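chain below, 240 aa
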Amino acid sequence: MPKRFIIDSEQKWLYMGREVFMELLKSLQRWPCNRSALWVYGTKGYGKSHLLAALVYYLSAGKERVVYIPDCRECLKDPISYFQAAMLFSWADDNDMQKEITRLDTFEKIYHFFKRWENIIFVIDAEGFLTVIQMEMKQWWERNKGLIDGDLVRGGYTKNEVEDFTGCIPLLLDNCVVKDENNQPLEINLNVEFLKEIYTQAMTFEQDIKSKCNPSEWGMYATTCSTPTTSLTSSGTMNI
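prediction:
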């Protein structure tokens, strides 16, 4: 359970949004079998984390195998142990499987474990992940300080332009670095095909959301997503 949840003396937590939970559950039940992910999104404080936690307990009570990652920030501190704990919860009814899980001490072993199973549900809550991204971005610039040339980044961009275009995501930045024959970074190119593909996918997602909203709902959603301080912390995800 996320540390930010308020737990009472009976080890219970309250949440608002039972009607929204039923909508979430119905969306999951009618989700196409050829789709691999369902996203739960909204502004900070709307109760996404509580809805995901309630969904986990509902699915677990129905004997589904659910691997629940409630806090990405905590997960990054010790990811293998964190995943093991989530897996032990999912296989709490099987002593033999629990013994096997405790021996999975690398991600490669964990990966091969999951490959043996079908219909595992992964629920990943991205709350608080913005802070992690900001820390990673700072470290990325430190590792690639040779790309900075005065007020500009080699390639003709400002630092803010690079961060805005890539969303401060080091994984995207790594794919924009042009290297020489010795594998040393030369400059940044924001016109690489990798980014163009992501942009196309993002625009498709935006148009899909816009088509389902009335003008006032879309205005609120677009304003929220354009605000850097909320664009990442406001997204919980449920991967199926």
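The radius of gyration is 21 Å. Confidence is low (pLDDT under 50) at residues 222-240.
thats it, cya
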